[in-house]
Amino acid sequence: MKKYIWPSIKLTLFMVLVLAVLYPALIAAVSKAAPGQGKGETVSVNGKVVGYENVGQRFTEDKYFNGRPSAVNYNAAGSGGSNKAASNPDYQKTVQERIDTFLAHNPGVKKEDIPAELVTASGSGLDPDLSPAAALIQVRRIAAVRHLSETKLMTLVSDHTERPLMGIAGPSKVNVLKLNVALDTLK
Amino acid sequence: MNSEITGVILTFIITLVIAFPLGKYIAKVFQGERTFTDFLNPVERFIFRICGIDPHKEMNWKQHMAALLSINLVWLIYAFFMLLFQSHLPLNPDGNPDMTPDLAFNTAISFLVNCNLQHYSGESGLTYFSQLFVITFLQFVSAATGVAAVAVLFRAFAEKTTEKLGNFFVFFTKTITRILLPLSIIMAIILVFNGTPASFDGKDSIVTMQGDSVQVSRGPAAGMIAIKHLGTNGGGWFGANSAHPLENPNYLTNMVEIIAQVILPMALIFAFGFFIRRRKLGYVIFGVMTIGMLTFMIPTLISEISGNPVLSHMGLKDITAMEGKEARIGVPASAYWQVMTTIISTGSVNSMHDSSMPLSGAMQMLGMMTNCFYGGKGVGLLNYFIFLIIAVFISGLMVGRTPEFMGRKVEAREMKIAAIIALFHPFLVLVGTALSAYFAAHHPQIAWSVQPSAWLNNPSNHGFSEMLYEYTSSSANNGSGFEGLADNNIFWNISTGIVMILGRFIPIIGPVAIAGILAKKKYIPESAGTLQTDTATFGIMTYAVIMIIAALAFFPALTLGPIAEYFQSF
């Protein structure tokens, strides 16, 4: 083995230079041309950054479209899911509480109509999106709180719905942050 | 939902369309034939010259292994010390601390062996310097090591009787310059234009619309995420891996990432067929592996798409199994990923496996227990080769012929090696699980920094699955986890570290040794009495051997884990 150690060390040094210095530097340079300059795309209201487009944030107030439950409380300093198994009794209790909370905040919604994603935590804890159904079910509550017409809100949701990739692949979704920014501008 | 199924099928088709020509290209690269990347010839000559490597000097299998182990030893020492002292090194805008010695031991081995088991979270556990100089670096070189090892197999069966099997350093270097680096650059650029960060800025602090002060972790992630998939490594930049919305921003990037992790393992199978000029053998191997993939894929898709029955007990009509999954990805694409990432030894996740349905969990574990359907970078084919040799031997006995593979007699010595390798994986997994289950059951309050009673995030059978999954993932060098397990402590860091390093190098040395021994033997031309290995019949035989070995060895453990959970809760 001894005769291979020296070439190995030299090859290692060379590869570190290429793979850990030049390669990331190249990608960082290219990212300057990308939206967000490789720092993440931000969303601003009146010139003030209120969040990152791709990073979900906590929306629990009744006047906003609420996002999904999060195991890290939407603090993007970290990330992660609950890692709870469906068979776990504690987990079942948590889900039951979420259902009860949702019903309390959304009078008039029948329990069976609650979309599963609103009572289950996301994988990252930072899910920025909702399915259109999960946004639409909140329309009645928001309309009542904000004294807006439900039709207007439904149009808002459908305007913000992103179709599947090329119209054929993947789910439809709504970005919660962008939807709520637009919601604040509705009269 | 329909568009989500279409998405999965489309993903598989695109993978195939890329993998086939890529396989042809890889075969040419290793044969030294002309390719469109020949403009890199002077670069490679320069590398060999400054490193003192004679690219024309061919090695036998033992020299190959000596070179492979030497350079891996250099990387292990390098990585361990970098992680141990990372806070004293540059590029640490978030002020993250040094790793503890046991965590550095685990992490250095984990990335050295292409496993990428992570007992830390990237946001708080690593500096940008470590992410690039240790993690990204090892993700490239460990993948290239696997490919260089399988290239020995290619050479062993391409010629009649030979000891000369090419040069390890040449295979290794060309894998990086001709395959991994160009593909990574393309993929990283796709990622940055879809929102993955690539700049060196540290955490950002923001005040959200509801007035919460939060931080957002970032960093030069795109390049690492590209090689993490292309190299079937799987270790994430962020803690949540590819479920994180910056690591995997949309459905397009999700497709790109899952395609990227499958194309090279698939391409290597086609490359094998092209290289040894027996395309049909390549197609048969590909066919068996695809059937193996479907054996795990179909039950997983069904179990995930039919939803979580617990929600229906609570009175919901929509019971989509969304716990641990992301809205932009959805259930079918998450289920597809769960299977691909476990049969191939990537181990990146776009959903939390701990929260998947019990039967999906069983399929994920079976994927790692068989560990050869497509399989990891290079090592998938090497594992398959072991089962192939066993199938040759058993079929030979069944039909009363001398077992032969590719014109070489398979004799006692090769069979002993094959049998040891085939049993070594269950041995590592089951001994590890038994040991941890013993402590969890009988010494829950033992005076350790993290007591075994605090290890598990879920009770009962699922808790057992968390431990079984951890060792299966370590030994298969997969790296995914049932992440509820509290694994950053001395017991788990050391025990999985040992399992990972044994689970890497023994299953590389074994098949390469068999290939080397067979290559030296006298070539016997095919006759009417030769057992044909490139037929569908023999393919089914190999499939049966794989399933029987995996099922018999692991079935009792699976019964205690996910199978019992399934019958108890649903």
UniProtKB/TrEMBL annotation, chain A:
<dbReference type="GO" id="GO:0005524">
    <property type="term" value="F:ATP binding"/>
</dbReference>
<keyword id="KW-1003">Cell membrane</keyword>
<keyword id="KW-0812">Transmembrane</keyword>
<keyword id="KW-0633">Potassium transport</keyword>
<comment type="subunit">
    <text>The system is composed of three essential subunits: KdpA, KdpB and KdpC.</text>
</comment>
<keyword id="KW-1133">Transmembrane helix</keyword>
<dbReference type="Pfam" id="PF02669">
    <property type="entry name" value="KdpC"/>
</dbReference>
<keyword id="KW-0813">Transport</keyword>
<dbReference type="InterPro" id="IPR003820">
    <property type="entry name" value="KdpC"/>
</dbReference>
<keyword id="KW-0547">Nucleotide-binding</keyword>
<keyword id="KW-0472">Membrane</keyword>
<dbReference type="GO" id="GO:0008556">
    <property type="term" value="F:P-type potassium transmembrane transporter activity"/>
</dbReference>
<comment type="function">
    <text>Part of the high-affinity ATP-driven potassium transport (or Kdp) system, which catalyzes the hydrolysis of ATP coupled with the electrogenic transport of potassium into the cytoplasm. This subunit acts as a catalytic chaperone that increases the ATP-binding affinity of the ATP-hydrolyzing subunit KdpB by the formation of a transient KdpB/KdpC/ATP ternary complex.</text>
</comment>
<keyword id="KW-0067">ATP-binding</keyword>
<keyword id="KW-0406">Ion transport</keyword>
<keyword id="KW-0630">Potassium</keyword>
<comment type="similarity">
    <text>Belongs to the KdpC family.</text>
</comment>
<protein>
    <recommendedName>
        <fullName>Potassium-transporting ATPase KdpC subunit</fullName>
    </recommendedName>
</protein>
<dbReference type="GO" id="GO:0005886">
    <property type="term" value="C:plasma membrane"/>
</dbReference>
From TrEMBL, chain B:
<keyword id="KW-0630">Potassium</keyword>
<comment type="function">
    <text>Part of the high-affinity ATP-driven potassium transport (or Kdp) system, which catalyzes the hydrolysis of ATP coupled with the electrogenic transport of potassium into the cytoplasm. This subunit binds the extracellular potassium ions and delivers the ions to the membrane domain of KdpB through an intramembrane tunnel.</text>
</comment>
<keyword id="KW-1133">Transmembrane helix</keyword>
<keyword id="KW-1003">Cell membrane</keyword>
<feature type="transmembrane region" description="Helical">
    <location>
        <begin position="381"/>
        <end position="399"/>
    </location>
</feature>
<dbReference type="GO" id="GO:0005886">
    <property type="term" value="C:plasma membrane"/>
</dbReference>
<keyword id="KW-0472">Membrane</keyword>
<keyword id="KW-0813">Transport</keyword>
<feature type="transmembrane region" description="Helical">
    <location>
        <begin position="420"/>
        <end position="441"/>
    </location>
</feature>
<protein>
    <recommendedName>
        <fullName>Potassium-transporting ATPase potassium-binding subunit</fullName>
    </recommendedName>
</protein>
<feature type="transmembrane region" description="Helical">
    <location>
        <begin position="283"/>
        <end position="302"/>
    </location>
</feature>
<comment type="similarity">
    <text>Belongs to the KdpA family.</text>
</comment>
<feature type="transmembrane region" description="Helical">
    <location>
        <begin position="179"/>
        <end position="200"/>
    </location>
</feature>
<feature type="transmembrane region" description="Helical">
    <location>
        <begin position="258"/>
        <end position="276"/>
    </location>
</feature>
<feature type="transmembrane region" description="Helical">
    <location>
        <begin position="540"/>
        <end position="564"/>
    </location>
</feature>
<dbReference type="GO" id="GO:0008556">
    <property type="term" value="F:P-type potassium transmembrane transporter activity"/>
</dbReference>
<keyword id="KW-0633">Potassium transport</keyword>
<dbReference type="InterPro" id="IPR004623">
    <property type="entry name" value="KdpA"/>
</dbReference>
<feature type="transmembrane region" description="Helical">
    <location>
        <begin position="6"/>
        <end position="27"/>
    </location>
</feature>
<keyword id="KW-0406">Ion transport</keyword>
<keyword id="KW-0812">Transmembrane</keyword>
<feature type="transmembrane region" description="Helical">
    <location>
        <begin position="132"/>
        <end position="158"/>
    </location>
</feature>
